[in-house]
């Protein structure tokens, strides 16, 4: 997988924020070295967040995000501001762009002060940059002491800005692994990958690809099988696998066919652990046992995709929940970036493995539910609970 193929969820997300015409888009173009964002003297040219995947050395693969002006006005402007604010939920490093030319005495505007307060509240590392510093001689005001002077027009300090952004992103960074820390070199790891109508043609899905890569980087051996070949594979391997990882949909069968002394978990559970919210998922799943008829359950997916006839989120999971509880809850669905801020009407939230969402956005969603006392779990944890094998599926994950 090349740098341009690095999944969005594995990239550091760098958001550029500021007022209209502060030069955010020009600065994004200067940092990326491309005419990515539309630049104009007309206020409000950027109407939607613009995303660009690139490599930022010495950091590595990143996602650059250009946002609409945070001071936009009118009904349409409010929608643009809302979209810009939503980007904050996934931002790992923020760049606040000030306008040297059009800031009286180079003082902060209230909306800029509010942004800084949000950065601090959300614990987002940030840098303040004063763009258009090549025009600052037109003003007698001294530059803001906390701001780093740059010029998108001349390229002044653009290289240094990239280095400062990388340093912020690397501060306090800890490496997490999907499965590598659970195994040893030359261990066998069996991956159970059903190939059914819902499986994409000719390829593995992203969670499967990433787990295989992590196993290989650990020097272990990934053995991929369909659910229908698992029993024969285990009988003929000649060496007991160190771990079996399954698609959550096949949990019941795989648990029955995997000897109890062999650790077992699922891709979805590993991803919840990887993004730091498995403990929340395990606590939240018990809400399934307190459901009543008519309770609303929100089922969330981090991406948008064409749903097949027996889709796990909209068909299988609701069916399993009804069979498990004997109740008739009301199921609601959201996908992509349409996660609601107000969760108060829901009895619980069940999220997908979130392979397409970065850790910061998943932590935002988890906190939204936690702040509103709404149980929050994920597909794999819920299915394991329903099948009565949750304790087995998390037994080897020492973080719990």
CATH superfamily of the largest domain: P-loop containing nucleotide triphosphate hydrolases
Rounded average pLDDT: 86
Summarize the amount of helix as a percent range: 25-40%
Low-pLDDT regions: 138-142
User: What's the CATH class of the largest domain, please?
Assistant: Alpha Beta
The count of helical stretches stands at 13
Order of helices and strands: EHEEHEHEEHEHEHEHEHHEHEEHEHH
Oligomer: single chain
Structural class comes to alpha/beta
**What count of structural domains?**
3
The share of residues in extended strands comes to: 15-25%
CATH topology of the largest domain: Rossmann fold
Strand order of the largest sheet: 2-3-1-4-5-6
- Report on the biggest sheet: 6 strands, mixed
Distance between the termini: 32 Å
Task: Sum up the overall morphology in one term.
Answer: globular
| CATH architectural label of the largest domain | 3-Layer(aba) Sandwich
- What does the radius of gyration come to? 24 Å
**How many beta-strand runs?**
14
């Amino acid at each position: 997988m090349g740098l341009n193929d690095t999944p969005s969820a594995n990239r550091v997300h760098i958001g550029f924020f500021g007022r209209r015409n502060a030069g955010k888009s020009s600065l994004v173009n200067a940092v990326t070295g491309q005419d990515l964002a539309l630049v104009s003297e007309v206020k409000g040219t950027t109407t939607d967040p613009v995303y660009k995947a690139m490599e930022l050395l010495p950091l590595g693969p990143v996602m650059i995000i250009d946002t609409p002006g945070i001071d936009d006005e009118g009904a349409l402007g409010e929608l643009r501001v809302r979209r810009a604010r939503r980007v904050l939920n996934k931002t790992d490093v923020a760049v606040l762009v000030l306008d040297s030319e059009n800031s009286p005495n180079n003082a902060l505007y209230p909306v800029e002060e509010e942004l800084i307060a949000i950065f601090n509240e959300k614990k987002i590392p940030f840098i303040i940059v004063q763009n258009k510093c090549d025009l600052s001689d037109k003003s007698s005001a001294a530059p803001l002491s906390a701001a780093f002077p740059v010029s998108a027009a001349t390229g002044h300090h653009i290289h240094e800005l990239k280095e400062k952004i990388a340093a912020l992103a690397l501060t306090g960074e800890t490496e997490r692994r999907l499965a590598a820390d659970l195994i040893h070199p030359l261990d066998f790891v069996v991956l159970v990958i059903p190939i059914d109508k819902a499986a994409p043609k000719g390829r593995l899905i992203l969670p499967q690809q990433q787990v295989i890569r992590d196993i290989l980087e650990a020097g272990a051996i990934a053995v991929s099988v369909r659910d229908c070949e698992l029993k024969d594979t285990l009988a003929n391997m000649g060496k007991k696998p160190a771990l079996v990882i399954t698609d959550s949909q096949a949990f019941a069968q795989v648990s029955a066919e995997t000897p109890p002394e062999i650790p077992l978990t699922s891709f979805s559970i590993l991803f919840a652990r990887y993004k730091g919210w498995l403990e929340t998922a395990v606590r939240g799943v018990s809400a399934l046992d307190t459901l009543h008829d008519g309770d609303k359950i929100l089922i969330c997916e981090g991406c948008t995709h064409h749903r097949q006839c027996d889709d796990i989120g909209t068909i299988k999971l609701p069916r399993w929940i009804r069979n498990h509880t004997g109740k008739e809850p009301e199921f609601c669905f959201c996908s992509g970036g349409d996660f609601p801020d107000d969760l108060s009407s829901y009895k619980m939230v069940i999220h997908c493995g979130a392979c397409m969402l970065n850790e910061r956005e998943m932590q935002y969603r988890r906190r939204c539910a936690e702040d509103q006392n709404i149980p929050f779990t994920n597909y794999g944890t819920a299915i394991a609970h329903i099948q009565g094998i949750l304790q087995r599926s998390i037994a080897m994950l020492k973080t719990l």
